[in-house]
Amino acid sequence: MFRTTEDGRALLLAAQEIHSERHGARTFTPGTHLPLEAAAWRAGIDPGRLRYHDAIEEIKYEDAIKWAANARHARGDKHYVITKHGLEMLREGQGGAVQGVSKRATRRK
Fold it and tell me: From residue 107, how far is each of 21, 30, 51, 61, 90 by CA, in Å?
């Protein structure tokens, strides 16, 4: 469980870094498309493996990312966008899928 949580955080951080390198940090706002496959490679996660897909599901569950409304016509891996909650998680460096106990783990108790 914690590995999936850490992988989700690593994907978010790597996606933020990649976006900042390409477009500048100030443009990383809610609704920004995320290069998650490239982020996975940067974080050392193979996008073709279950580990990657589990990390995506975790950060979707934590409401850090959501499916892009215009993804139906998107090419490549930019099908998800960062949410306001995802940005808050990155800024705080804690909570939800980013650090500590996920929502899923607290609900099982």
Answer: 37, 27, 22, 13, 23
pLDDT in tens, 10-61: 999 999 999 999 998 888 999 998 999 999 999 999 999 999 999 999 999 9
Residues 84-97 have pLDDT tens digits of 999 998 988 744 44
**Could you give the domains of the chain?**
2-104 (1.10.10)
Total-model pTM = 0.77
- The residue type of 67 is W
Burial class of 3 by CB neighbour count within 10 A (0 to 12, 13 to 18, 19+): exposed
**In Å, how far from its chain's centre is CA 33?**
10
